[in-house]
Amino acid sequence: MSTNVNMRESTHTGLETWRRLIEQLPDAVLCVDACGKVHFENPNAINLLGYDSDEFARLEVSAMVFDAVHQHALDAAVLTQLARSGESREVLIKRKDLSLIPALLSVSSFNLSDLANAHLVLLKDIRQLKLSETSFHREKKLLEILLNNINEAVFLAPITAEGVHGNFVEVNDVASRRLGYSKQELLNMNARTINPAANLGRVKAFGKHIRREMDTIFEAIHVAKDGTQIPVEVVAKIIGIDGQDYVLSVVRDLREHKRLQQSEARFGRLIDHSWEEIYIFDSESLRFLQVTQGAMNNL
């Protein structure tokens, strides 16, 4: 946030008051002149960068602050631009031991009678934030690997207290391949989109049921992008993430299972009406599983 502070105190007391205020700030603070030369710093700057006050007095900000992407030095001209724009920028701080620390840079301009066109440089240490981001991205990548190596389709969607589902926030590759939609297309869809037979009332009823029971198993029909109707078994469970409830659904394609059931039913009907001697038995126990009427007549 850009501020222009006009301080007309020319006395030593005015400068000391300004210095004491800076010393109370929680982040590292450098006071630099129009050329980028450090005039004073707060204790947090000493702790963060590793220089003492005498060493800071011989330094310019360009020796310590670098662009986080291109790693070129930030000079006084860049500080002026940042002060005018009010923007914060992610930077790298070079410590006395030459190690680099990620930080968030904010710049304000001010004037003292004996220090005109100066800049107040605030440096917020964001190492912990970066570690958290790295950990988050690593965990997200591991989750993606896990989801995309499961043979079933996986959907994650928020659910309200009234049982209403929101759009999917995560799907795996199997879901995309099975339904013929890209991942981005699926993230703009919800349970009703892929299951048109489920009207809003049924979806709400299901939502209330799963919120009460916390998990459930049911069969449904999913409709692919090309119109193909896919019988599925859905194992759904409520999970909480950062205070928000989500429905995690693992969906099994039942087409092959249904075909086998139909084949078995047709075979069973043929057996039931056959007058040939046919015996079906378990190869391990040698127990009969099914025999035809013709076989029964000869037993």
Task: Kindly describe this structure.
The protein is α+β, with helices and mostly antiparallel strands. The chain has three domains: 122 residues, PAS domain (Beta-Lactamase, 2-Layer Sandwich); 103 residues, PAS domain (Beta-Lactamase), CATH 3.30.450; 35 residues, no CATH class. Helices cover 36% and strands 31% of the residues. The protein contains eleven helices and 14 strands. Strands 1, 2, 3, 4, 5, 6 and 7 form a seven-stranded mixed beta sheet that branches. It starts with a strand and ends with a helix.
Quick rundown:
The chain has 299 residues and is an alpha+beta fold.
Biggest sheet character = 7 strands, mixed
**What is the name of the CATH topology of the largest domain?**
Beta-Lactamase
CATH architecture type of the largest domain: 2-Layer Sandwich
H/E element sequence:
EHEEHHEHEEEHEEHHHHEEEHEEH
Query: Approximately what portion of the residues adopt beta-strand conformation?
Result: 25-35%
- CA radius of gyration is 35 Å
Query: Structurally, how many domains make up the residues?
Result: 3
Shape type: elongated
The CATH homologous superfamily of the largest domain: PAS domain
* CATH class call of the largest domain: Alpha Beta
Helix proportion of residues, in percent? 25-40%
> How many β strands by DSSP?
14
Averaged pLDDT, please? 80
Helix count, DSSP H or I runs of 4 or more residues: 11
Structural class: alpha+beta
Low-confidence blocks of residues? 1-13
Ends apart, CA distance between termini: 96 Å
